[in-house]
Design a protein that fits this description.
Two copies of one chain form a homodimer. With 202 residues, the first copy, chain A, is α+β, with helices and mostly antiparallel strands. Chain A is built from five helices and eight strands, in the order E-H-E-E-H-E-H-E-H-E-E-H-E. Chain A has helices at residues 16-23, 49-64, 101-113, 137-148, 167-180, and strands spanning 3-11, 35-38, 43-46, 70-78, 121-131, 153-157, 160-166, 187-196. The first copy, chain A, has an eight-stranded antiparallel β-sheet. In chain A, helix 2 (49-64) packs antiparallel against helix 5 (167-180). The A-B interface holds A 4-6, 8, 10-14, 16-17, 39-42, 44, 46, 69, 71, 73, 75, 77, 80, 83, 123, 125, 127, 129, 131, 157-160, 162, 189, 191, 193, 195, 198-202 and B 4-6, 8, 10-14, 16-17, 39-42, 44, 46, 69, 71, 73, 75, 77, 80, 83, 123, 125, 127, 129, 131, 157-160, 162, 189, 191, 193, 195, 198-202.
Chain lengths: 202, 202
Amino acid sequence: MFSGAQVSLYPMSDNFVGIILKAIGALEPYRANFRIETDDMSTLLVGPPDQLFPAMRDLFAAAANGGTHCVLAATVSRGCPGEPDDPICTPIEGSAFDKPLPERIAAALAAVESAPRLGLSVAAQFSLYPLGNGHHMDEIYGCIEFLKNSGVFDRSKNFCTKLRGDAGPVFATLSEAFLRFGAPQGHVALDLKVSANSPSKI
Amino acid sequence: MFSGAQVSLYPMSDNFVGIILKAIGALEPYRANFRIETDDMSTLLVGPPDQLFPAMRDLFAAAANGGTHCVLAATVSRGCPGEPDDPICTPIEGSAFDKPLPERIAAALAAVESAPRLGLSVAAQFSLYPLGNGHHMDEIYGCIEFLKNSGVFDRSKNFCTKLRGDAGPVFATLSEAFLRFGAPQGHVALDLKVSANSPSKI
């Protein structure tokens, strides 16, 4: 298994460099678990799939907590057949697939319920792509059932699903959708944007 | 066929609202061809697949031409089986699939070669997802051959491909990759970020 993300942070501020540099400090607790590479467009995180969303959550919260309108955009992937297996990508929490689908939905809902609240309101928009063969439609329907009951489901849009709520349960919901559904060793990609402090009225 | 994009514009500036509102004017020439809906996270464009990238190019150039570090992020889709066929999504230029693969690669390269130069340097990063069945590997390899010869290929990264060059040929390359490869009526999604005026050294 190979898992990771290309992550970008966009603070809508003249001080975007300062906000990004300060927020990157929030990745320190995760640094030992990940391979991290940065260029002019994104930061690559390669490591345990169950640590990706907590790391992105803490990075984003560190940038957005000052009140600046910020967006985090990420391309998240697990099981890409073109990438070599890498021991650094072993899930810290163990397999998320060792139970039948109804029990996994219940476990995902419990994980969101017990997620820490950060006091930061966010909107998120994502597309989940099960690639290649081996993904059964009942897994997709199970994931949709989970999302609609997550407590942070906002609505379905063309090409994506929108969530809204506290950053804690929103990132936990994204993590559970990514980790717990689809073929256990299958290729799953997730296209994500998370926004905070937008001045737009909805 | 149903085709469209969820498009977001991120100017790294205190004046992000003003830059976005001014840039939206660049969509005027395309407005008659598209259904357009905006919320706090993105603008939905539904319309002809061959007009999507020119519309995004002009929107992005209008925002970035002032020198502000700007990013455009988009989730682009064609052929989603969950969406109804829509006459507004008929390609204006006709089918891009009426020739064998080697001729399509040549046509894609010619389209990039003849693309207008905008005088705006950009970097782009994208992931192309052929979803469901019916996409043959020779189509994927043909698309990769096209990209590597496009003149704006920068490098392969984990989870994505990076382009660099003038906004004209870069957006033309993205458009050709999206339109001309994969199953003609198949579901193809493209996760895109385009950046200009970044202060980062590479």
